Amino acid sequence: MEIHNQNCTCWNCPAINLAGKVDFRACGQSTLKFEKKTRDLSEAQIMAECKRRPELGLFDPMGITFAECPQWQKGPYGYLLKDMRVMILGIDGYLGWALALWLGKLGCKISGVDNYNRREWVKERGSHTIVPIARMNERLHAAKEVLGIDINFRQIDILNERPRLREFIDEVKPEAIVHYAENPSAAYSMIDTEHAIAVQKNNVLGTLGLLFIMHELVPETSLLKLGTMGEYGTPLTGRPLFEGMFPADATLKWGTREWSMGGGAYPQGPGEFLSCQ
After folding, report:
1. Mean pLDDT over residues 88-108, rounded?
2. pLDDT for the residue 27
3. Dihedral (CA of 71, 73, 78, 81) sign
4. Which of 47, 76, 225, 259 could form a disulfide linkage to 58, CB 3.0–4.6 angstroms apart?
5. pLDDT of residue 58
6. Does the pLDDT value for residue 74 go beyond 70?
């Protein structure tokens, strides 16, 4: 049975090292150059090195698949990089903590950052969580005792403590970063001018600072950002973006699922400041 990512190659691996080599990945006109999978280095279009397997030297990144590489192991959800280093920003949140435990049980090496802003925002509004949330030191202890997971945690504000974030990323050298360190509440962003500005600064400028750190220290690391992002941008498929009102019978189909888009406007007009990022 074929696994969905078994034929992915080093080109898709965060352990690839393209420093000092030509990198055509951002160029849409380079697609055809990488369709040919060759093991003949004389015919290779681009050469790379592996951070995990330096004994390979220079090689064609299209020549080794995940199924062939000993650093990739078959798991319940496809091939997973052995002991993959994953850093979760906003690890104290309801999504960040659950993801940390899940990935830790799958064998990933988890590190995390949080400044506890979410807890403070809840207190500010005179509210509380429906489900009590233990303090981080208690959570870390429970993860170790119950699941056997060691989580490398630092209390860092990614917006106002960039030097500390840079130092932590340089220490860990994460191979993937999951970015949850944002304010996810549209209602909070609409309280008043100061709250709207604070949310924009935290979410937009915090991410901008992170991107510059990654570009400098870990340029091959994958960033998974699960916050609000812009509507515009040409899809990699080359499909033109639709503008205007969808017809009443318009539908969106994917696999066996179907959604009605009748009457919807695109690009969407944000109804609050959270979506204006």
Report:
1. 96
2. 47
3. negative
4. 47
5. 87
6. yes
pLDDT digits (tens, 9 = 90+) for 158-184: 999 999 999 999 999 999 999 999 988
pLDDT at 41 over 60: no
What is residue 277's DSSP assignment? -
Contact between 241 and 234 (Cβ < 8 Å): yes
**What are the tens digits of pLDDT across the range 4-27?**
999 999 988 999 987 545 545 444
Number of helical H runs and strand E runs in the chain: 7, 13
Q: Which residues pair with 80 in a beta bridge?
A: 73
Burial environment of residue 89 by CB neighbours within 10 A (0 to 12, 13 to 18, 19 or more): buried
Could you tell me the residue ranges of all domains in the chain?
1-79, 83-225, 231-277
- Mean predicted confidence (pLDDT) in 224-248: 62
Q: Which residues contact 98 (CB under 8 A, 6 or more apart)?
A: none
> CA geometry: angle at 176 spanning 173 and 182, to 5°?
105
Question: How far apart are the C-alpha atoms of 258 and 252, rounded to whole Å?
Answer: 6
Q: Where are the beta strands (DSSP E) in 70-162?
A: 72-75, 78-81, 85-89, 109-114, 152-155
* Of the candidates 129, 201, 195, the residue with the CA atom closest to the CA atom of residue 159: 201
Q: Report the amino acid identity of residue 69.
A: C
For 182, the token pair is 């944002």
**CATH code of the domain made up of 83-225:** 3.40.50.720
Length of the chain as a residue count: 277
**Token pair belonging to 231:** 């509507």
Contact assessment for residue 164 and residue 155, using Cβ atoms and an 8 Å cutoff: no
